[in-house]
């Protein structure tokens, strides 16, 4: 939804700048759109990461799990 609002706003502003004769300004909206899309994508993937903390009398175990990576990190403390 946020991307749709940005695309519409960028299109309207880009058209406005083109009508004023400042067409190079509208070209800056394309890389901005790519960076915003990339930021949302990275944020979504990082949001799926979770950690599990287990505490017993003798040991503290922390496990990090990321569903898109095969490596699971595990730390054990005595």
What does this structure look like?
The protein is α+β, with helices and mostly antiparallel strands. 55% of the residues lie in helices and 22% in strands. The protein is built from three helices and three strands. The chain has helices spanning 2-20, 23-27, 29-47, and strands at residues 50-55, 60-65, 73-77. The chain is rod-shaped. The model has no long low-confidence stretch (mean pLDDT 88).
Shape: rod-shaped
Secondary structure tally, helices: 3
* Rg, Å, rounded: 22 Å
Strand fraction: 15-25%
Structure classification: alpha+beta
Spell out the helices and strands N to C: HHHEEE
- The low-confidence parts are none
Total number of beta strands: 3
End-to-end Cα distance = 47 Å
Percent of residues in helices comes to 55-70%
Strand order of the largest sheet: 1-2-3
Mean pLDDT: 88
| Main beta sheet | 3 strands, antiparallel
List the helices and strands and how they pair.
Layout: H1 2-20, H2 23-27, H3 29-47, E1 50-55, E2 60-65, E3 73-77
Antiparallel strand pairs: 1-2, 2-3
């Amino acid at each position: 939804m946020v991307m749709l609002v940005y695309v519409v706003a960028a299109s309207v502003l880009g058209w406005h700048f083109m009508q004023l004769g400042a067409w190079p300004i509208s070209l800056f909206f394309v890389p901005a759109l790519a960076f915003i899309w990339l930021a949302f994508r990275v944020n979504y993937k990082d949001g799926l990461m979770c950690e599990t903390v287990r505490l017993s009398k003798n040991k503290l175990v922390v496990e990090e799990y990321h569903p898109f990576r095969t490596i699971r990190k595990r730390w054990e403390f005595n």
